[in-house]
Write a structure and sequence with these properties.
Strand order of the largest sheet: 1-8-7-2-3-5-4-6
Radius of gyration: 27 Å
Structural class: alpha/beta
Low-confidence stretches: 1-11, 49-55, 58-63
Shape: elongated
Number of strands: 14
Mean pLDDT: 87
Helix content: 25-40%
Number of helices: 12
Strand content: 15-25%
């Protein structure tokens, strides 16, 4: 089910559009508690002093745009407070937010997140595999940015596709340091003059990981600082609905053209690996109730030992009685046992794991 059919508030949302205007005003005009996830890449307030040159005296195309200029830290803090309040109002009770920044601003943003009642879940270090060199040689090469992931409140049941990230990471838990390249080459969008269309365009790989990790197909993702539309492009590919807000007309035009050319992945590929805890619970006794297995039928252990099924879904073997897990653990002399993979039943001369029957029931429950 998509968010378009989850409630009347979703019907009022300008889904899959880029809205023009100040992000605070636009967010305040949208329905309350209507968004599943917000990805925000706010101005960094870099406080650059003068031009930056390479050793060959060529000028670096640094971030010196008007939208990144603030008169003082106080002015930046007031701006941060206002847009974060507008964002929190939009989030559903179980919604979450990602904010990315550099050392210039992320600590100030993090403090305000906590001030407003957001609950910090992780900070993620995006370690750039190909960072911009430090040309002056007076500081360390700035090779990372920080992302803060926070739920709307402490008790929020936010989305986290743990198993999907583990699968993406070759079966190993995903860590909080992500090594990904900065946006360059064919992915870097250029304007008609051949210059970078946006100085801080984020790579699609970063948004792909964020959206796979913390959203599901059909969720609504809002980006209040849309820029050239990376969030929208990746959301469209992954079957999520997006709302972009961007006040600069040039960026809106680039983003619209970019997203128009994006094709959504086939629906069959959008589902991701789910946690086993998220699967519907099926007691072994339900297999007996439904006649998929019968009282008196035999189950076989990996060592060839035979247990009989009782009418209440318990097993009995040589005076040992209990659940499929308890009896399996007793036979193995182990503290625990996954009875679903341990026990097999016989059909047509073959032994089949009882988990196959559990998955059959789960498939029916999912509809």
């Amino acid at each position: 089910m998509t968010n378009k059919s989850k409630g009347s508030e979703a019907m009022q949302l300008p889904l899959n559009t880029i809205m023009s205007g100040d992000c605070i005003d636009v967010m305040n005009s949208l329905p309350e508690a209507s968004v599943d996830l917000i990805f925000a890449d706010p101005p960094y307030n870099l406080q650059l002093k003068g031009n930056l040159h390479r050793p060959d005296n060529s000028m670096v195309d640094a971030v010196d745009n008007d939208w990144d200029q603030f008169d003082s830290f106080r002015a930046y803090d007031e701006f941060t407070k206002a847009w974060l309040a507008a964002a929190r109002r939009l989030l559903k009770p179980n919604g979450a937010i990602w904010v990315i920044g550099s050392y210039h601003n992320i600590f100030r943003v993090g403090a305000e997140l906590q001030n407003q009642g957001y609950w910090l879940l992780n900070d993620v270090v995006w370690r750039k595999s190909n960072p911009m060199p430090n040309f002056r040689g007076k500081r360390l090469t700035n090779a990372h940015e920080t992302m803060i992931w926070a739920s709307k409140s402490e008790g929020g049941k936010y989305t986290f596709n743990y198993e999907a990230l583990k699968s993406m990471n070759e079966g190993v838990q995903m860590r909080s340091d992500w090594v990904l390249p900065i946006c360059n080459g064919h992915e870097r969008i250029k304007n008609e003059r051949g210059d970078k269309a946006h100085p801080t365009q984020k790579p699609e790989s970063l948004l792909h990981r964020v959206l796979v990790a913390t959203t599901n197909p059909g969720d609504v993702v809002l980006d209040p600082f849309f820029g050239t539309g990376t969030t929208g492009a990746v959301a469209k590919k992954l079957g999520r609905d997006f709302i972009g807000i961007e006040r600069e007309a040039d960026y809106r035009a680039v983003a619209a053209e970019r997203i128009k050319s994006v094709r959504r992945y086939d629906r069959s590929t959008l589902e991701v690996t789910q946690s086993k805890r998220a699967e519907p619970r099926v007691p072994f006794g339900q297999l007996v109730e439904r006649g998929l297995l019968n009282p008196g039928e035999e189950l076989v252990s990996p060592r060839g030992k035979i247990a009989k099924i009782r009418a209440d879904g318990s097993l009995v073997i040589s005076g040992t009685k209990g659940s499929i897990h308890q009896v399996g653990a007793k036979l193995e002399g182990a503290p625990s046992c996954n009875g679903w993979t341990y026990w097999h039943f016989r059909r047509d001369g073959k032994t089949v794991p009882i988990d196959m029957l559990r998955q059959q029931i789960r498939s029916e429950m999912r509809g």
